[in-house]
Amino acid sequence: VVVLHAAGLFTLANSETDAGIRETFAAAPERVTLYPESLLLPQDEATLDRAAAGFLNRYRDLKIDVLMCDTLYVHDFLERHPELWPGVPRVYFNVDTSVTRQPGFGPNATGAAIRLEVASTIDFALRLQPDARQVVLVGGHAEEDLYWFRVATKHLRENHPGRRVRSLDTLPFQEQLAELRKLTRNDVAIFLTIFRDAAGESFQPFQVLRDIAQASNAPAYHFHKHAIREGFVGGVTVEWELLGRQASELALRVLRREPADSIPDQPPLPGVPLANWRQLERWGIPQDRLPEGTETLFRPPSLWRDYRGYVIVGTAVVVLQALLLVGLLRQYLRRVRIEAELRESESRFRTMADHAPVMVWMSDTDRRVEWINKTWLDFTGRTQAEARGDGWTRAIHPDDLPRLQDFSERGGPIEYRLRRHDGRYRWVLSNTTWRGPAGGPLRGYVGSCVDITDRKEAEESAQKNQAEMARLSRLALMGELTASLSHELNQPLAAIRANAEAAQFLLERTPPGLDTVRDCLADIVRDDYRASEIINGLRGFAKRQPTAVAPLDVRTLVGEVVVLAHSDALHHRVKVSSSHESDLPSIQGDRISLQQVLLNLLMNAIAATGNSPADRREVLLSTAASEGAVRVTVRDWGHGIAPDAMDQLFQPFFTTKAEGLGMGLPICKNIIEQHRGRIWAENHPEGGAAFSFTLPIAG
Ligand code: ADP
Which ligand 1 atom sits nearest the alpha carbon of residue 636? Predict the structure, then answer.
């Protein structure tokens, strides 16, 4: 197979086409010998004739099966030299296939076409630079070059009318470079072909690509991918290697005895838009102007395009890790913040606690003190170090310590003795609470205590005072009773005396009236009992004795008080009567204290009734069960309670009496409340006052 190129073998197009040819034949089962030849266009006719003679000479003894002809220039050459390879089937390539079927190409020919993408490269350039000021065409001045200038200007005129076009073909190549330097980024430079320039100098296009790319101050375009590699912006490129393969396939078919003219021509291969990413960046041409399907050289590797799967999985892992990290970080920051807040709140707590009037401590879960406030240290005269751990226990009264340790298990307030710096033990009231977040683990305890010694002493003395007051009040009541009591005692004493005298008299009689004497003595004993009953009642009443709580029958209590007040009632000529509900439950209480209450109410009632008309001089004591309690009411028909006095009755020192003390009712109230009962006063609608109290029933 002879492969006859028009231009030199080293043109970019030829070397790529040859690669396609070489590889296709190498892969074929037949062993095919290739003879590459070139007309080395552009040449004058004489040179071409010499070349023809050379071919004739070289191939005289070689049988050639297929002649592969590159371009119509080769066809023209062969037409002029019919002596060369007569009758050998031809495979044209790099031609316009519409011509190979025409007469003159002979029956023995077929072809594979290619289209030099001049027009589409111009369209490509103006699509990338729609606002370009002018289009500058660069190239040579040989006939082979001018052909493309004509194609280009025609296309520009027809498809981009009004666009300024400058052809530099008339300038020597160096001057063309100078012109390119003057351009701006708003211009478009399009390189066509250069075999010979206007000055007659020969070129091979691959030699000038770099010069053009470096000189041009306007984005440059060309249709060969090598140009785009060298620094052109882009263009629609031709697949020369594919053309070589296609043409070789046709040649192989002919070698296999297929008549060439029975093999249809191959239509031109579509051009491939190609751009240089760095140049797009350099000129600031937006990527989105590139036609769809444009390949881009030098685009920084896109992980997404090349390793989509890995990228998705990798990104997902990274995102998850990031989320995890963010989560952990947030948790960490939260912990740090909470710890800081905790520290701050603890230090705030300590500062506050140091200045608090109460003693405060913090311990771990084993009740070993971690910190104790200044108030405690000042009180006990110890140092923080001494109090730490179990040190604090040395300040506790030894008798109270076991109780204190046991108490800690139970919680709640507790009283114990704490040794003060002066060595004296003081009573303190202590409260303990849990330390740690709500619902969280126990971190220890926080406790506080206050010195309650003074309060305790005050309470004790108040209690003593109250008891003393009550006794004094009883004595006062007795004082009031004295006058009427002497009269009360006179009665049994006079009766005793009368009975004794009668007995004496009867014993002197003979025979003595012993039966009657016995009656007299029985009367004496009875009257004596009555007198001592009165005296005993008073004695118990006057005695200072501790309160003794016991079950009591209210009826008996009322009876005893009626006896005590009997003389007073007589003295005021007031009738005292009592009425009891049957089956009264017994109550729990101190007899003397409750007698005092009842006596006080009764004597007040008698006093209030003293000036009433004879038919209203009456006091009624009644008892009744009421809701788990027994109610006692002392009702009189006296002057009643003035409305403005009602609120003050139970206040100490309130009295309307000339010699009154005003302590009776407050003491009554105190006693009743100690018995967990209630006392109140009201005016009866039919006149007079009614004082009532309740006492809870026993059990
Ligand atoms: P005192 O008897 O020394 O005045 P009390 O505390 O016993 O002290 O009574 C206070 C006041 O309550 C009396 O001064 C009187 O004004 C009023 N009071 C008490 N009982 C009655 C009653 N039954 N009727 C009207 N007023 C009463």
Answer: 23
The b/e string for 467-502 (b: 16+ C-beta within 10 A; e otherwise) is eeebbebbebbbebbeebbeebbeebeebbeebeeb
Question: What gap in Å lies between CA 338 and CA 331, rounded to an integer?
Answer: 10
Query: What is the Cβ-side half-sphere exposure of residue 142, based on CA atoms within 13 angstroms?
Result: 20
pLDDT of residue 483: 63
CB 10 within 8 A of CB 206: yes
Using DSSP bridges, classify how beta strands 369-372 and 618-626 pair: parallel, antiparallel or unpaired. Answer: unpaired
Query: In whole angstroms, what is the distance from residue 597 CA to residue 96 CA?
Result: 141
Q: Which atom of ligand 1 is nearest to the CA of 601?
A: 20
Q: What whole-number distance in Å separates Cα of residue 392 and Cα of residue 398?
A: 12
pLDDT score recorded for residue 464 = 80
Ligand 1 centre from 180 Cα, in Å?
A: 131
Query: 3-state DSSP call for residue 19?
Result: helix
Dihedral over alpha carbons 323, 324, 328, 331 (to 10 degrees): 60
Residue 688 CB less than 6 A away from ligand 1: no
- Ligand 1 centroid, distance to 654 Cα (angstroms): 8
Determine if ligand 1 sits within 6 Å of the CB of residue 665: yes
Report residue 211 as tokens: 């010069």
Give the pLDDT score at 572. Answer: 86
The token duo for 233 is 């912006």
For residue 144, how many other CB atoms are within 10 A of its CB? 19
Measured between alpha carbons, how far is 96 from 45 in angstroms, rounded to an integer? 24
Question: In terms of Cα–Cα distance, which of 209, 217, 136 is closest to 183?
Answer: 217
Please spell the DSSP secondary structure of 675-692, one letter per residue: TT-EEEEEE-TTSSEEEE
> Which residue minimizes the CA distance to atom 16 of ligand 1?
656
Contacts of 522 (CB under 8 A, 6+ apart): none
How far is the C-alpha of 655 from the C-alpha of 640, rounded, in Å? Answer: 14
- The CB-side HSE value for 590 (13 A sphere, CA atoms) comes to 19
Q: Is 652 in the pocket of ligand 1 (CB under 6 A)?
A: no
Cis amide prior to 219 (ω within 30 degrees): no
Show the low-confidence residues of the chain (pLDDT under 50).
Answer: none
Q: Is the CB of 679 under 6 A from ligand 1?
A: no
The full length of the chain comes to: 699
Quickly list H helices, 256-307: 277-283, 303-306
Indicate whether residue 656 lines ligand 1 (CB < 6 A): yes
DSSP labels for 562-629? HHHHHHHHHHTT-EEEEEE-TTPPPEEEEHHHHHHHHHHHHHHHHHHHTTS-GGG-EEEEEEEEETTE
Q: State if residue 197 touches ligand 1 by the CB under 6 angstroms criterion.
A: no
Q: Is 681 in the pocket of ligand 1 (CB under 6 A)?
A: no
Q: Is 689 in the pocket of ligand 1 (CB under 6 A)?
A: yes
Confidence (pLDDT) at 237: 93
Counting from 1 in the atom list of ligand 1, the atom nearest the Cα of 656 is 14
pLDDT tens-digit readout, 88-104: 999 999 887 666 667 66
Residue with tokens 């108040």: 462
